[in-house]
From TrEMBL:
<keyword id="KW-0472">Membrane</keyword>
<dbReference type="InterPro" id="IPR006202">
    <property type="entry name" value="Neur_chan_lig-bd"/>
</dbReference>
<keyword id="KW-0812">Transmembrane</keyword>
<dbReference type="GO" id="GO:0005230">
    <property type="term" value="F:extracellular ligand-gated monoatomic ion channel activity"/>
</dbReference>
<dbReference type="GO" id="GO:0004888">
    <property type="term" value="F:transmembrane signaling receptor activity"/>
</dbReference>
<dbReference type="InterPro" id="IPR036734">
    <property type="entry name" value="Neur_chan_lig-bd_sf"/>
</dbReference>
<dbReference type="Pfam" id="PF02931">
    <property type="entry name" value="Neur_chan_LBD"/>
</dbReference>
<feature type="domain" description="Neurotransmitter-gated ion-channel transmembrane">
    <location>
        <begin position="230"/>
        <end position="352"/>
    </location>
</feature>
<dbReference type="GO" id="GO:0016020">
    <property type="term" value="C:membrane"/>
</dbReference>
<feature type="transmembrane region" description="Helical">
    <location>
        <begin position="219"/>
        <end position="239"/>
    </location>
</feature>
<dbReference type="Pfam" id="PF02932">
    <property type="entry name" value="Neur_chan_memb"/>
</dbReference>
<feature type="region of interest" description="Disordered">
    <location>
        <begin position="344"/>
        <end position="369"/>
    </location>
</feature>
<keyword id="KW-1133">Transmembrane helix</keyword>
<feature type="transmembrane region" description="Helical">
    <location>
        <begin position="283"/>
        <end position="305"/>
    </location>
</feature>
<dbReference type="InterPro" id="IPR038050">
    <property type="entry name" value="Neuro_actylchol_rec"/>
</dbReference>
<feature type="transmembrane region" description="Helical">
    <location>
        <begin position="246"/>
        <end position="263"/>
    </location>
</feature>
<dbReference type="InterPro" id="IPR006201">
    <property type="entry name" value="Neur_channel"/>
</dbReference>
């Protein structure tokens, strides 16, 4: 095998810097070489949600045909396996969006190449690759991340080397559903593989593309959603606690707020910075807002209760004042009614007494007017005989009549009959004097 290898790789007949399709051409580029690849994934090591990367372990298999390395001696065998590939042409397969890659092993035992007598090359290397993935957490925790795995030929155009998958259904292994074990958070639910040619300013390049769908299986995020619902329900139940139990309601509201805030920070800390908020974060924020509203509602209700108590106190004081004023007015009216009743009783008693027994008592405020002196002199001058007794009697009667006339309305009503009789006697006496 070693002698055959040395013969086939002799520099006089083999140039490792020239691809197989162009080796016999001096001017024309020659036919394109077909390179088929397979990334046989044995382990999904991790999916980093913050770093937006995923890491896989497996084998990178590259297959092509190099007609310059054919042989026909059946005694040698139909295939040979070597570990060194530095002396022959190999396609420059690379990964797009790669963060870190390890090909082969440190002791050089993680790589081998198999030669077939017809020129087919089967190159296999151990690989551990960390690949970047643009993840979208808008539907978290019900999200499915679609990560693109892109393999290309770095130093050849598509017209020179075409890369493609060995089989689109086996791009990541012959039985990838069983070989790719799920992580604690994600599992591979679907793989879509295809070949494409991408145009760049320098030309068209060939790529083998595989879209890997990572479906979230962790119940941690779902638990966060359920936990948010429980805290919101507790905050709502606090509204039914007696409003007089201020310590219980305040403690429950603040406790629900603190727990909900910590839960929202926990969800956010597990995600990378983003311009949009994930669904779970929005849900937690709505729960936090509800807790804040519950606390504000209790503050407003407590303030309203205090204002209502003040209004009721003022109303009660006003009612007491009105009630006291009404009681005083009632007492005043009762006192007035008793006085009126006494006066009415006295009046009825006076009206029932005989007129002869009634005494004339002039009012102290209204004294009887005195009879003018000229009238008295006129009466006395008419008595030519100068009878002293008659003149004295006439004068007394005149004074009595004047006093009766001067008595007020009330005295006149009480002693009307007596006053009329006295007045008649006075007039009779006056006529006698005139005669």
């Amino acid at each position: 095998d070693g002698l055959l290898r040395q013969y086939l790789l002799n520099s006089t007949r083999y140039d490792k810097h020239v691809r197989p399709g162009k080796s016999n051409r001096t001017v024309a580029p020659g036919p394109a070489d077909d390179v088929t690849v397979q990334l046989n994934v044995q382990n999904l090591r991790s999916v980093d949600e913050i770093g937006m990367t995923f890491t896989v372990d497996g084998y990178l298999r590259v297959v092509w045909n190099d007609h310059r390395l054919q042989w026909v001696d059946s005694s040698i065998g139909h295939s040979m396996i070597f570990r060194d590939t530095t002396d022959q042409w190999t396609p420059s397969v690379y990964f797009e969006r790669i963060s870190e890659i390890i090909l082969g092993a440190k002791d050089d035992f993680g790589e081998s190449i198999q030669w077939s007598s017809n020129g087919d090359m089967w190159w296999s290397r151990q690989i551990q690759a960390t690949i970047s993935c643009k993840m979208n957490y808008g539907r978290l925790p019900f999200d499915v991340q679609a990560c693109v795995l892109l393999l290309g030929i770095y130093d050849e155009l598509a017209s020179g080397v075409r890369i493609q998958w060995i089989d689109s259904n086996e791009a990541l292994g012959n039985n990838w559903r069983e070989s790719i074990k799920p992580t604690n958070v994600f599992q591979v639910s679907k793989i879509i593989a295809n070949d494409l040619v991408t145009q760049f300013p320098s030309g068209n390049y060939s790529y083998a593309k595989a879209c890997i769908h990572f479906e979230r299986i962790s119940i941690n995020m779902q638990t966060d959603v359920i936990f948010t619902c429980v805290i919101v329900v507790l905050a709502y139940l606090g509204l039914w606690i007696d409003r007089a139990s201020a310590p219980a309601r305040v403690s429950l509201s603040l406790l629900c707020f603190v727990i909900q805030f910590a839960n929202m920070n926990s969800v956010t800390s597990r995600l990378p910075p983003s311009r949009t908020y994930p669904w779970s974060t929005c849900f937690a924020f709505v729960g936090l807002a509800f807790n804040i509203l519950c606390f504000c509602e209790y503050v407003v209700v407590n303030y309203g209760v205090q204002m209502l108590a003040q209004v009721q106190s003022k109303k009660k004081a006003e009612e007491e004042r009105v009630r006291a004023a009404a009681a005083l007015e009632m007492k005043r009216r009762e006192k007035l009614a008793r006085r009126v009743a006494r006066e009415a009783a006295a009046k009825r008693q006076q009206e029932q007494e005989p007129p002869g027994r009634m005494e004339l008592k002039p009012s102290a405020s209204r004294m009887p007017r005195r009879v003018p002196a000229a009238a008295i002199e006129r009466l006395t001058s008419r008595d030519s005989d100068g009878g002293v007794a008659r003149s004295t009697r006439a004068s007394s009667i005149a004074h009595a009549a004047a006093a009766v006339v001067a008595v007020g309305g009330r005295a006149r009503r009480l002693v009307g009959g007596v006053a009329a009789r006295v007045a008649d006697e006075g007039r009779v006496a006056a006529r006698g004097l005139d005669d």
